[in-house]
Fold this protein.
Amino acid sequence: MAQLKIENLSISFGGIKAVDNVSFAVQPNSIFSIIGPNGSGKTTIFNIISGIYKPNAGKVLLESENLVGLRPDKIARKGIARTFQNIQLFGNASVMDNLMLGRHIHMKTGVIGGACMWGRRSRTAGEEIRNREIIEHIIDFLDLQSLRDQFVSNLPYGKRKLVELGRALALEPRVLLLDEPSAGMNTEEKEDLKIWIKDIQEDYQVTILLIEHDMNMVMGISDNILAISQGVKITEGAPPEVQKHPDVIAAYLGEEESRV
């Protein structure tokens, strides 16, 4: 049974269809990538899944529960976390503080309340300790030890992307949406990211949806791929099948030609 199922999803902006009747299914603990030229509707699909946009038609089913109409915070509590194409972090806060903010939905006392009540109640203390342990594990996992006390605004772009990935992991998601996670990274960082994504899938038992322009990464780690162009589904399948599909080749060649 699919863990996440998208049924006949459509949304328009100003009369232009950004996503047009798109359907796909994502199996549990798999890596499912969405590819397509710039402006093809990939991030729009992520925005619908995470509750930022409400579609004109269609369903977003998380283990048979329709999430359409729920607020983003409610969807996060259901177990869907995401990173963004444009980084959404607090630049004037430390790496540690940004990661701790990812625990907010699990904090009964809240981020500020938990800090103020430290030592007053054993339950609060226990909650704080557990949250810290989870964040420490993420810091070790993503090799962020040397950056933990630095302001995010002082970090290179690639490191900020890692912090955003860590904050998403702090939510303890069942489904993780990664929007262009390798953007701004150098070759070495991209190779590390490929390993981390596979480790997240295996160690955290998380289902991953990936939007990524680096085709070497997509083809190397994906279990299945959805290709779209101008909001319309082209094909869906295993990486070798999608890579050889003539319409996928034409869509990418068209994009390359448009840049010349």
